[in-house]
Amino acid sequence: MKGFGNKTIKKNLNSQNFLKEKLKEEAFKYYEQGDLDSSLKYCSSFISKGFKDVQIFSKYGILLFELGYVEKSIDTFERSICIFPNEPDLYINLSNVYKLNGNLTKSEVLIRKALELFPKSHIALSNLSIILINKGQFVEAEKYALDALEIYQQNSNYHYNLGLIYSKTDRLNFSIISYKKALVIDQNNYAANLNLGAILLKLNNFEESKKYLEIALSLKTNSYEAEFNLGQLALFTKQFETAEKYFRKVSISCKNNWEIYKYLGIVQFMNSNKESIDNINKSIEINPQKNISHVLRSVINSKDKSRGLNKYINSNPYDKFGVKPVILHREIDDNLIDTLYKLETLDLNKIDTSNFFGNALGSGYKVFEENNPVLKSLENDLIKLTSEYFMSDIFIDDSFFRILKGEGRVKKHTHLDNIDKLKKLDLYKNKFSLVYYIKTGDTNSTEPGFLNFYNPNDKILPKQGMIIIFPSDRPHSVLYNGKSDRIIFSINFYSY
User: Which CATH number do you get for residue 253?
Assistant: First the structure.
């Protein structure tokens, strides 16, 4: 009779819809329970029956990745995108797979596609920010991190990401604010507690630093990062035995970190432990590239030699330097000026570790890590000039440039870190600062930019191409009220 066929189709459709929803429900239920294998089984059954659902396809790809089937996960997402080409979640999840698998280029392409489809996706905006952080593109990363927070404020990790950007660009007080906002939303955010503690340690706020580092350690009891930072805190507050316990412990759990052995060697030297030089050598063995451990080995060997002879051997360059800064010269290269103007810069008024004020721009403190032939040529020249003058090996610790675009000043400061100030080690006696004047601005202005020294007082009016070298513990300042740009390139280095 008329209508019987339609009722059968309807009945079959209802049965199929029931099965489809049941499989989907079971897949998500087991995933929430943490039973990934069962969840995968239901997703696979769903797909094998020809059902199509973007949530299941996405969950199936995630499960494959979490269970270690990376290539299958990628293949699943790519096939899913062919079926659902306008679903941003598929691009977001495939982007995550590539990011976690170390392919940031493909990850970025996919997340930007997700944003084309859904520009207001705070998840995609935040993920793009993370990719750019990993690529070291902090200015652009900041833009997307702020965009994500403008849309959705109540995600602890979004504030954490912004804090990470601020810390990477030396805006430490802004970083502290962001990390604390992250902890208001989720006080158990391990990474926010850890990084906040590390920033406070860098700012010598030892008491508050200890509070957050201990919280981080309580959240992740095997966190070598938290114990490593607590070890540094103990070292810089002269709790040398406690510091050595921390560094010994983390050296067992993390055997291939050269910095751990560096600090273990330092604190053992402070404790008069003869194992000190062995651990400094271990640090160099792990990372044979020239670094501060080479300086430490030279300094500690020299001090041990003096102690063995029961007399002081004056082997440090500081005591031989004298009170007058050293003046050298290097010709100005127009390519260098062009290069510096093109490099990414930040407003130095927002940089907590900067001493510049006014219309001042500048770089971070590791410019020589840029893959740039002009900068590599400058690095080689500065190493040659300084090593020939001191007749020693040179290790450059910091490299940075500053552009004063008109009136500005540099407040009185030195270039010593906590490690340089450790008495007995006296690393400051091997540390020097160099300023290379690339553009000197208006030298006829009322404040033409004298480099003012203190203890004892002295001042030098720089000329273009001039290089001035002085001990890093000597306070100095600058005042400039000209209108033309003034460019300097600086390094802090150790002679050993």
Answer: 1.25.40.10
| CA 279 to chain CA centroid, nearest Å | 25
- CA pair distance 351, 173, nearest whole angstrom: 9
Whether the ω angle into residue 471 lies within 30 degrees of 0, i.e. cis, is: no
Encoding tokens for residue 192?
A: 């926010």
Q: What domain range includes position 311?
A: 222-315
In the numeric block, the tokens 């906040």 are attached to 196
Structure tokens at 119: 């520009």
Contact status, residue 434 vs residue 382, Cβ threshold 8 Å: yes
Contact 99, 65 (CB under 8 A): no
Global pTM reads 0.87
DSSP letters for 295-353? HHHHHHHHHHHHHHHTS-----SHHHH-SSPEEEE----HHHHHHHHHS--EEGGG-TT
Question: What pLDDT digit, counting tens, does each position of 137-178 carry?
Answer: 999 999 999 999 999 999 999 999 999 999 999 899 999 999
For residue 95, report the phi and psi dihedrals to the nearest 5 degrees. -60, -45
Residue 250, CA distances (Å) to 29, 265, 275, 292, 436 in order? 40, 13, 16, 20, 40
Residue 341 CA to residue 312 CA, distance in Å, equals 48
* CA distance readout (Å), 272 to 233, 239, 244, 302, 352: 19, 14, 12, 14, 36
- The residues pairing with 466 across neighbouring beta strands, listed in sequence order, are 329
Indicate the helix (H) or strand (E) that contains 487. Answer: strand 485-495
Please state, rounded to an integer, the average pLDDT across all residues of the chain.
Answer: 94
- Helix, strand or coil for residue 407? strand
In this structure, the answer to whether residues 386 and 475 fall within a common structural domain is yes
User: How far is 65 from 60, CA to CA, in rounded Å?
Assistant: 9
Residues in the chain: 496
- At residue 311, the pLDDT reads 55
Least Cα distance to 76 among 105, 104, 56, 99 occurs for 56
CA distances from 309 to 179, 303, 306, 313 (A): 52, 10, 5, 9
**For position 450, which CATH number holds?**
2.60.120.620
Q: 142 lies in a domain?
A: yes
pLDDT tens sequence across 250-294: 999 999 999 999 999 999 999 999 999 999 999 999 999 999 999
Give the chain's radius of gyration (CA, Å): 29
Instruction: Please choose, from the candidates 162, 228, 235, the residue with its C-alpha nearest in 3D space to the C-alpha of residue 192.
Output: 162
